[in-house]
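User: I need a structural model of Fe2OG dioxygenase domain-containing protein from Amborella trichopoda for a docking pre-check later this week. Nothing fancy, just the predicted structure tokens so I can convert them on my end. Input:
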Amino acid sequence: MAVLSDDSGKRLVPEDSGQFLSKYIPFLTKGLCSDCTEILCGRIRQLALGNMDMDSLSNGHCEDHKESTTDSSLTSLDRNSNSHSNGNYKNSHKGSSKVSSSKNEELDEMLISEVQNKRTSLSRDDRERIRLLQVGRKKDFVCVERVNGKMVNILQGLELHTRVFSAAEQNRIVDYVHSLQEMGRKNQLRERTYSEPRKWMRGKGRVTIQFGCCYNYAVDKNGNPPGIIRDEEVDPIPPLFKTMIKRMVRWHILPTTCVPNSCIVNIYDEGDCIPPHIDHHDFVRPFCTVSFLSECNILFGSNLRILGPGKFAGSFSIPLPVGSVLIMNGNGADVAKHSVPGVPAKRISITFRKMDTRKHPYKFLPDPELEGISPYDPNESLPQAPPSRPSELQFNHSAEGEGETDGNNFCYENSQFPPLGGSNSAVRPRNRR
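Assistant: Understood. Predicted structure tokens for Fe2OG dioxygenase domain-containing protein:
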């Protein structure tokens, strides 16, 4: 392969800059923000082309950030758009409208390219590769408990993927969730899509927005048991959420064999919680939860104790950073119960699940946009996080409190995750219902 050389004949950068970027970009960009990463990659490409004109270089992150943010493809998303796709129900809701394929492409581009610096001319493939390399992956959670007389790792199957959604992407998704909430309050969504119960005590009354299927948490007034209500209709999954699903499948977070076809949005006020439970088997495994606005802990244990309103005690606590995806599978989904203690600040989560085909709503039809999604292949193995050392698992001897772990069991530390964008705990007005 031909290479560039300096005056002494020493090699600089191979002409195949794409191969060079794929091999060395994790080392060269460690600790850099996405803007600086793109600037560095662009300069490597200029070297490969033999261009060493100092006047053509940008002045760095601070100057470029203003321009690139303005020109970002993020601005292509209409903040006021509340359109939905009708793809997966036989009968569409009168309040829904079709979204063109070009609009879906804009949404996809928004999520794949947070900021594109015009001076670096990185290809879309290179930008996706860079973002993929920034994702943290933790798959070796361990908490051994005695279950039915046997010692079992109750966390087997759990995975935490961090930095999946950038700060700008999170803001856009949160804005969209708030627009959906406003639509629900104005009765512009199907009746069972939106639920905002009146708060009658601490931890009770979080807002839920369901798409794809109507899930019943408890026996309802009509006598329907917990699970999917097959003869009820809710709105289909919105285009933006389908784009999130595509990313998680492409980035090897969710398997192609378990592409979600339903989701539920939870909007928490400070103090709202989810009591101990195991997700219903009307949904197949794995499923996942994406976190926004503020970090909170999720508790696991084969026997979680309720200490009071919004207060639970369990064996293992995992912090959920904003922009992260928690995968639940195996023992972590079916042996361990999980709960979310009263959250310290306003929070949004979106849980994506695939329905058991035997439990599909009667009018459900597969969405062609969610079929045939191919995992991203950068022509090299995906980066793997190094295995955790035993010293990384800290004992927590607190036995009680809001989301405390029981004594002599493990709590996973915040410091073991890659840093993410700051959280925002802005509080909305109290429910009007």
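Before docking, keep this in mind: The CA atoms of residues 36 and 61 lie 6 Å apart.
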